[in-house]
Every structure is written in C-alpha cells, then in structure tokens.
C-alpha cells in the first residue's frame, strides 16, 4: 500500500505539490491526469525517493520513504519506475539492460538473472531481441524493454510517467497493450498519462491534478462522464 | 655547397637498436596511458564529488597539465622533485611527467563526455535500486569511455610523441634517446633522425588505425 499524506514540495519559490493526499491499495490502478506543470511527474519521483519532499509523508508498505533511516536503494527494489524517455542503457544489449540490476543490486548469478530477464522480455514481446542493442529498437520497443527491466526486479509497485508521450502515434498502442496486460495481472500501478481513453479503460480510479493540487479523484466513469471540478471539465474539454 | 653524402647502410645497421628504443617508447606511452586513464577517472569522480577540496585539487591538476609545457611537467618530475631529495630515474620521471599530462587532458575529455550523457541515465540506475557508485560504474563510466574513445587515442599518440622530451632528463633508452646517442657516435644526423621520424610515424599510424578498428568492434551501438 502506498500512502501519500499531505505532501508538499517546492522547487525554489515554486510550490509544485500543495498538500497531496492519496492512498493506493494493493492491486489498484490509479491514473493521474492533468495539465503540464501540475506536478504529476514530481509526485512519482517523490514516491520512490528520487526527490525529497518539504513536508508530509509518503509511506510504502509501512516504510516512510523520506525518513532518514530508510534504505532507499532497498525500497526502490520494490518500486519500479519507467520514464518518458532515455530509459535504455545504450552500451548494453537488451538482455544486459534487464540483467544489470538483478545481478548488481540483488546479487543474482548471471544464469539466474538471464532466466528472469528472458522471461520478462518474452512477456513484453521482445523475446527475439535479447542480443540487440537498444539503439536498434523502436521507441515502443525501448519502452517495453524498460518495463521488462523494472519487472525483472519483481517490484510490488510500478510507476509510469507518460511512457507513451515521446512515441510516434503508431507505436503507442503496443506499449499501452503491455501496460494493460500488467494491470490485468494485478500489478499495483500509478500511471501518469495523456491517453484518456486508455485511462478510462484501465483505471480503478483517476486523479486529476491542477497546479499542485489533486482537484478531483474518482472512478473513471465519474471523472470522464461527470466531472465535478470546474478545472477537470476545462481540462477534459481541451484534450477531447 | 651540398656535399653531404647519404650513408643509409651504415645507419640501417643501427636499426635494431632503434627498434629496441621504439619498444621502450611504447612501454612508456602505454603505461602512461593506462595509469593516466585510471587517474583521470579518479579526477573526474573528485570533480563530481561535491567536496570542495577534492574538486579544487582535481581542477588544479587539470589546469596545470593543460596550460604548462609538457617539457615543464617532465622537468619538474625529475629535477623539481629532486630538490626535495627524491631522485627518480629518467624513465620514472618521464613516465610521471607524461602520466600527469595524460591524466589532466583525459579528465577534461571525460568531463565533456559526461555532458553528453543524459541525467536520466543515472536516474534510471538509481530507480532500479543501484547506489550512486554502482550507477556511475556500470552505466555512466562505460558510456563516458566510449564517447571519449577517440580523444583518448589522440592522447595516446601525443604520449608517444612526448617521450621525445625524455632526453632533457637524461633518458637514453627510448627511441629519441637512442637516436641522439647514435648521432653523437656516427654524426649521421639526417639519416638517423629521418629513420626515427618514420618509426614515430608508423607507430602513431598503427595506433590510430588500430583504435579505429577496435572502436568499430567494441562499440556496435
Ligand atoms: N528539478 C526541477 N527543478 C526545478 N523545477 C522543476 C524541476 N522539476 C520540475 N520542476 C517544475 O515543477 C513543476 C511541475 O513539474 P512536473 O514535471 O511535476 O509537471 P508535470 O505535471 O509532470 O508536467 P508535464 O505534463 O509537462 O510532464 C513545473 O513547473 C516544472 O517546471
Ligand atoms: Mg511530467
């Protein structure tokens, strides 16, 4: 369970998160939508401790992320994250990209790590690309590789930050399919996305962010069908 | 007016000696590069460490190495340090001087290479649970060395050529030193130095071409 309690965060003068409260239960899929600069990416990088917070708490399975005593490297093993772009390690093959962390972080043997990596790469449809360098992959394949790489650590949670928005339109579908598959398998996920129909399709709840505030959260039918907040209505009108 | 008769035969008889010298030249250059690369990585880590004294130390090294004559650096390694009662052989002094120079130039190359690696690479590594040192070693460092590979081969060529400065600290076993001694013995100045020049040229060409081939094999991405 991820518990986000009254989290505030500023970059210099600019307050980017203005008291966010959100609980994500095991197995839940929460999508975060909202305008550019509303703090969506910042929230994700706070959850896995890449960014410090100013006040409030984020608790993952009882561990407070930003407590001094927390071993972030250990915590991150159970929180996978995939970014918008530049995820692939270009000097490693696809297989090596995926085995690196299991070997160096979990101390797995090469053979064990490769077995897991192959399984995950097949899972995302890259079983035939093991010895290819990621620079030879399409953007969509690179993103699926990044997903497999995160999954190889057997995370309990997955965070996705607009993983399709740097892709050519015809490559978006294959990555969304992969995400959907994960959701159906019961992975707990927080997804930031601009793909509204996908969000409606896959989410248990949808959160709308506006200028550092979570203006509205609810079931996809409600957010898309009957948005309560004026800003949600404006936003949805603008993206439709 | 032009009464110099070339005597190649007499000089070519000394070729084996010169080739022995060339081996010493290569030895100094290769050692100075290997140690120089390691030191340059250390300097790079120091500059990124966030510790002011370490960064200042590394920056001073780089500044001195890049903005003073290589001859000065080799001279200091020999006669400068000797003033404090520490005496190095000409070989060691030459090696120290060139290594110091290599490390400074390479550290600067590495800094440029690092700028070409997106910050998100480290983020991706940290997100997978790697420590900052693991991210640097397994993700950043290999990419940095790859980007800096061609500047590194240039520095290797430079290291070969810098060995000729060893004569100023009494070095006489390297290619240039051997050539100079033979010259004092035979006075066949033009022939000897022409041959030395050709050997230098061949060595540096082989290095450049070899490096290009190696790069094509090593870096397939
Ligand atoms: N490292 C940083 N330093 C300074 N300001 C930052 C930093 N990261 C983000 N910001 C600022 O914080 C605000 C929120 O950024 P964030 O990336 O979280 O927005 P977002 O909702 O993900 O937007 P987008 O949809 O464009 O990705 C923006 O105004 C951004 O410029
Ligand atoms: Mg963002």
Keywords:
heterodimer; A: 240 residues; alpha/beta; 6-stranded mixed sheet; 4-stranded antiparallel sheet; 38% helix; B: 221 residues; mainly alpha; MetI-like fold; 10 helices; 0% strand; binds adenosine-5'-triphosphate; binds magnesium ion
Characterise the protein shown here.
- The complex is a heterodimer of chains A (240) and B (221).
- Chain A is α/β, with parallel strands linked by helices and 240 residues long.
- In chain A, 38% of the residues lie in helices and 25% in strands.
- Chain A is built from 9 helices and 10 strands.
- In chain A, the strands form 2 sheets. In chain A, strands 6-7-8-3-9-10 form a 6-stranded mixed sheet, sandwiched between helices.
- The longest helix of chain A has 16 residues, at 169-184.
- Chain A is globular.
- The mean pLDDT of chain A is 95.
- By secondary structure, chain B is mainly alpha-helical.
- Chain B has one domain (8-218): MetI-like (MetI-like fold).
- In chain B, helix 2 (15-48) packs antiparallel against helix 9 (175-186).
- The longest helix of chain B is centred in the first third of the chain and has 34 residues, at 15-48.
- Chain B is elongated, with a radius of gyration of 21 Å.
- The relative contact order of chain B is 0.15.
- Chain A binds chain B through residues 48, 50, 73-74, 76-77, 79-81, 83, 85-87, 89-91, 100-101, 104-106, 133-136, 146, 149-150, 153, and chain B through 118, 120-121, 123-131, 134, 138-139, 142-143, 146, 219-221.
- Bound molecules: adenosine-5'-triphosphate and magnesium ion (MG).
- Adenosine-5'-triphosphate is lined by residues 11, 14, 16, 34, 36-42 of chain A.
- Residues 11, 14, 16, 34, 36-42 of chain A line the site of adenosine-5'-triphosphate (ATP).
